[in-house]
Amino acid sequence: MNSSVEKCYKFHESAIDLLSSIDFCDTTFKVSLFFVIFNPIFWNIVSRLEYYTHFLTKLTNNPKTGCYILAVTIFTLGIVRNYYFEQALYKQVVSQVLENEFTKSLGVILIVLGQILVITSMYQLGIIGTYCGDYFGILMKERVRAFPFNVCENPMYRGSTLSFLGFSLLQGKGAGLLITFFVHMVYEIALKFEEPFTMKIYRNPKID
């Protein structure tokens, strides 16, 4: 009983330390959260608008060119998001709970694993497959089943989340863990919209 109480007390203490280490009023922290939430909303809205109206295809007279424009935009927004995430963490104080060699080593491992998932999934899908090409009517011939898709679903999202988590642990910042939680949640919500819609596209491809 005493052991259980002690563990509960230590967990409570650790949670308080993590929360107290976060500066919620920092501007870069707020901007980082904004881009974490905004980016998936943006690419889902724009890609669906393209699917229903072909506005990028009409603008460029070529679906591939339109897809490349969207890809550059999404990639750029990702760089901006990552920049503010790093800046936000640099301005936050280190949490005593996360300030140890094991946490830092785990952070490095998670970053490496995350980047492997992201890079290999992009390699398997290509630029068009990665950046909503199916919304432009550019469909893949068959479902990709090679690594990393044979070890996990949605490796791009999983890898991105692991990278955020790893960097947060490496820096020892509680704010990073909170931002990572939002990264995970917005990806999960995005998938609720993306996966059924993608299945619909491949079941009923539009022929114009």
Automatic annotation (TrEMBL):
GO molecular function: phosphatidyl-N-methylethanolamine N-methyltransferase activity; phosphatidylethanolamine N-methyltransferase activity
Highest taxon in the source lineage: Eukaryota
Membrane topology: Multi-pass membrane protein
UniProt cross-references to InterPro entries, sorted A to Z: PEMT/MFAP, Phopholipid_MeTrfase
Pathway given in the UniProt record: Lipid metabolism; Phospholipid metabolism; phosphatidylcholine biosynthesis
A cellular component annotation (GO) from this entry: endoplasmic reticulum membrane
TM regions (residue ranges): 27-46, 67-85, 105-133, 164-187
EC supergroup of this enzyme: transferase
Segments on the Cytoplasmic face: 81-107, 193-208
Catalysed reactions, as listed in the record: 1-hexadecanoyl-2-(4Z,7Z,10Z,13Z,16Z,19Z-docosahexaenoyl)-sn-glycero-3-phospho-N-methylethanolamine + S-adenosyl-L-methionine = 1-hexadecanoyl-2-(4Z,7Z,10Z,13Z,16Z,19Z-docosahexaenoyl)-sn-glycero-3-phospho-N,N-dimethylethanolamine + S-adenosyl-L-homocysteine + H(+); 1,2-di-(9Z,12Z-octadecadienoyl)-sn-glycero-3-phospho-N,N-dimethylethanolamine + S-adenosyl-L-methionine = 1,2-di-(9Z,12Z-octadecadienoyl)-sn-glycero-3-phosphocholine + S-adenosyl-L-homocysteine + H(+); a 1,2-diacyl-sn-glycero-3-phospho-N-methylethanolamine + S-adenosyl-L-methionine = a 1,2-diacyl-sn-glycero-3-phospho-N,N-dimethylethanolamine + S-adenosyl-L-homocysteine + H(+); a 1,2-diacyl-sn-glycero-3-phosphoethanolamine + S-adenosyl-L-methionine = a 1,2-diacyl-sn-glycero-3-phospho-N-methylethanolamine + S-adenosyl-L-homocysteine + H(+)
Intramembrane stretch boundaries: 27-47
Location in or out of the cell: Endoplasmic reticulum membrane; Mitochondrion membrane
Keyword field: Endoplasmic reticulum, Lipid biosynthesis, Lipid metabolism, Membrane, Methyltransferase, Mitochondrion, Phospholipid biosynthesis, Phospholipid metabolism, S-adenosyl-L-methionine, Transferase, Transmembrane, Transmembrane helix
GO BP of this protein: methylation; phosphatidylcholine biosynthetic process
Ranges per topology, Lumenal: 1-26, 48-59, 129-171
Xref: PANTHER family: PHOSPHATIDYLETHANOLAMINE N-METHYLTRANSFERASE
Protein name: Phosphatidylethanolamine N-methyltransferase
